[in-house]
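JOB MANIFEST
job_type = single_chain_structure
chain_count = 1
residues = 159
[input]
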Amino acid sequence: MDYPLNIQNLIKKFSQLPTIGPKTAERIVIFLLSKNNSIFDEFSKALLDIKGKIKKCSLCNNYSETDPCFICANSKRDKSILCIVAKPQDVYAIEKTNNYSGRYFVLGGNVNPLEGITLESLNAKPLFERLQSNSISEVILAFNPDIEGETTILALQKQ
């Protein structure tokens, strides 16, 4: 016997999220149904807030509530050092170390020729414009040491 259609639809939606399979999605939906109705209001508000209040920084391409973001707007950050990362999560991982005081650029993913992902399909054009228009003396390529990360580094170096 299957769940009612609305439950099935929500399970499908949660299953579309990264690292959430059908079983986990089912557990999440059943958990939500077992809670007070206020949890749905809280989730709805949080989703609408993200949709309406979060934007990409025009300088670094990181998610932020302001443009420029708090990192790019910070005058104490070293403008001559640029750390290029694949995803916004990478910025926050580096920031948690409290050992980096430069600026960032979020490329938006990794080059993966097998999936048709090229530098052109990522945010490379604004990156190269930024590199040419600013006095950047050091570039740090902070990508995972896997095939996609290495391919991205090689593609960036080639450009």
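[summary]
Residues 89 and 97 are 13 Å apart (CA to CA).
Residues 38-53 form the longest helix (16 residues).
exit_status = 0
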